[in-house]
Write a structure and sequence with these properties.
Elements (H helix, E strand, L loop, with lengths): L1 H29 L1 E8 L3 H13 L3 E8 L1 H9 L6 E4 L2 H9 L3 E10 L2 E5 L9 H4 L5 E4 L5 H12 L3 H4 L3 E4 L2 H10 L4 E5 L13 E4 L9 E7 L5 H10 L3 H9 L7 H4 L1
Parallel strand pairs: 1-2, 1-3, 6-7, 6-8
Antiparallel strand pairs: 3-10, 4-10, 5-8, 5-9
Helix pairs in contact: 2-10, 3-4
Length: 263
Amino acid sequence: MALFIRKYNEIFKLFGFVLLIFSSACSSESKTKLRIACAANLEYSMEEIATEFEKDCDCEVEIITASTGQLTNQIIQGAPYDVFISASLKYNDALRKEDVIEGKIAIFAKAKLILWSTTLSDIDENFLINGKFTNIAIPNPTTAPIGKVAEDYLKSQNYLNYLRGRIIYGSSVSQVNQMIASGNVDLGITTESALHNPNLKNKGSWHAISPFKHQKTYQTAVVVKNSQEKDLAIKFRDFLSEEKAQKIILLNGYDLPTKRELQ
C-alpha cells in the first residue's frame, strides 16, 4: 500500500510539472509580440526601455538591431516590424515617400559623439592631429547616420583628407564598438552610449566631441504601416517620450531634445 501511495505521489508530481510547463508555454504563446527595428547605437538603451514597457503591457518586445540604412531597406521590402527606431530624420523621409510608415515621427533623444580607444591613452581634442595611431574606425556614412555625422565632423575640422587612407569603416555603430573594444583598431568615433554598455564600461580612454554647426544626431521613432499591432506600436512610440524612458535615455549617454527641436 505504501509503495502504491509513493508511486501515486510521483505520478502526481510529474503530472503537475508537465501541466506547469504546458501552462507556461500557453501563457508565453498568448502574449502579443512587438517587433522593434532599432538603430544599432540604441541597442542597450532600447532593451532597458523595452523591459520597462513590458511591465505595463501583456506583451513581449523583440529588438532587432542593424544600421539605420539596413533597417530602412528591410522595411521598404516589407519586413514585419512594428516600430522603426532611427538615428536620422532623413531615413524617415525616405520611408514616408515609399508610404511604409504612418503617423508622427517622434524625436526622443540626441546622440553624443566621442573619440574612444581601448589601446591608447590621453585621448583629447587634438589627438587626431598630434596623437600616434595607425587607423581610426567610423560607421559607414552611407548606411549609418552616426557615420555621416562623424564624417561631417572630420570635414569641419579639416581632418578628413589628412586621415584618408587610415579610416576603416564599420557597417554599423555596433561593429565599430566591437572593433574598438577588441583593439582591432587604434581608436574610433562612436556614440557615448557605448561607454554605458555593461560589457564595455570603464574600458580605455575617451574624449567627448564638441557639437559643431551642422551636427544632427536626432534619434526618432515611427510606426511601420504594415504593423499588425498598431495600437501597441503607437503606445511604444509615445512611451519613448515619457519620464520612465527618458531617465533611461539620459543614463545611457544621450541628451533629450529641446522644446524648440520638437516644434
